[in-house]
Amino acid sequence: MYRRWPLVRQVKLLVVRFLRLRGAPEEIAKGLALGIFIGLTPTFGFQMLLAVCLAVMLKENKFAAVLGVWVTNPFTAPFIYALEYESGRVLLGMDHAQMPNSLSFSALKSLGWEVLLPLCVGSLLWSVLCSMAIYLVAIRVIPLTHTWKIPRWPRRSRRKTGEGP
Predict the structure, then answer these.
(1) pLDDT (tens digit, 9 = 90+) per residue, 88-143?
(2) CA trace torsion 62, 58, 29, 132 (10° rounding)
(3) How many CB atoms lie within 10 A of CB 118?
(4) CA–CA distance, 32 with 126 (Å, rounded to integer)
(5) Is 89 helix (H, G, I), strand (E, B) or coil?
(6) Cα(145)–Cα(15) distance, integer angstroms
(7) Closest Cα partner for 26 from 53, 64, 54?
(8) Beta carbons within 8 Å of 2's beta carbon, 6+ residues apart
(9) Are 52 and 83 spatial neighbours (Cβ–Cβ below 8 Å)?
(10) pLDDT in tens, 21-39
(11) Which positions ≥6 away from 164 have C-beta within 8 Å?
């Protein structure tokens, strides 16, 4: 039944494509770690572009870098950025930022550094830690994945479905 769901099929195809990446395991692991590093920084909207550009400049795997960026997606981003903000705030010894009484541009502009500085410090900490951990895990796991045999997605025959001549 789940084979008829296009989203499940696309997720499986992405996983298969990642597992079949060509290149040295170290290159793929470095690309993934680079993507995780960029994905955990507050570079909203530019993360994939930044990951591809840096992967090209550093001659790492571009697809692995783009996949690593997706560590922050619409479901995980609020939790990740909240953790990074709190970590940075604690490291800097800052109080919680107070929301302004009015939502004017000048009020939000004054709030900027109270939020952005702890977010950047916390994201730097978590980016370094997570990218190093991912690299160490990936460098060991990627050679194992190259030996896995992944079965093809079964196709429906035209005779059974009534399609075709």
Answers:
(1) 999 988 888 777 676 666 766 777 778 888 989 999 999 999 999 999 998 998 88
(2) -130
(3) 23
(4) 15
(5) helix
(6) 11
(7) 64
(8) 8
(9) no
(10) 777 888 889 999 999 999 9
(11) 158
With tokens 């079949």, the residue in question is 20
In order of 20, 57, 103, 144, the CA distances from 46 in angstroms are: 27, 16, 26, 32
| Residue 143: closest CA among 32, 28, 35, 53 | 28
Nearest to 3 by CA among 163, 162, 152: 152
pLDDT tens for each residue of 3-17: 566 777 777 777 677
Separation of alpha carbons 63 and 23, rounded Å: 11
Kindly report the three-state secondary structure assignment for every residue of 98-155. CCCCCCCHHHHHHHHHHHHHHHHHHHHHHHHHHHHHHHHHHHHHHHHHCCCCCCCCCC
Instruction: Please state the pTM of the whole predicted model.
Output: 0.74
